[in-house]
Amino acid sequence: MSLDTVNDQPVIEASRFVLRPLRSSDSGLIALYSGDERVARMTTSLPHPMPPGAVEALVARATAADRDEDIWAIDGTRDGGEELKGLISLKRMDRDQSEVGFWIAPVFWNSGLASEALEALVTANPLKNATMFAAVFQDNPASARVLIHCGFEYLGDAESFSVSRNANVPTWTYSRKL
Fold first, then answer.
1. Three-state DSSP class for 7?
2. Given this structure, which CATH class describes domain 12-177?
3. Strands of 69-75's sheet, edge to edge?
4. Strand, coil or helix: 173
5. Domain assignments of the chain as residue spans, ordered by start
């Protein structure tokens, strides 16, 4: 099997980076960046502090044949950048729909990286989705702006549990028809 394809998960080209399947060598940078409380607090699933083995379990889930979520590394090495700048994912739902998730390492915030990664993923539409959804915490307006910039439309308010906060947190939900 090619290092660039995990169970038919494609490599997606963008102008400053590629989106590629995770590999075990990503564990160190994932641990470094996702261990930052500012990153973990804006996700539903990342704990803080990161317990031993959690990153390795994430990579194992991402590369499993029976996974229900495709996770890509935002890899800037093609242009001389960092091997991992963040992650972006599609979690399968029913009726040709997926939920988008992403986080960017703080050193790359405010660089347009999240918008470019999301637009590349939407344009490639690797799961042939009819609709993509996303939810962001209401105290994370930067991620809401990324979604709006990429053509996602506001659907309404909800709430999701945040592992790092150990609490339900108000969210804004968005969708984009493809």
1. coil
2. alpha beta
3. 12-13, 18-21, 69-75, 86-92, 97-104, 131-137, 167-177, 153-162
4. strand
5. 12-177
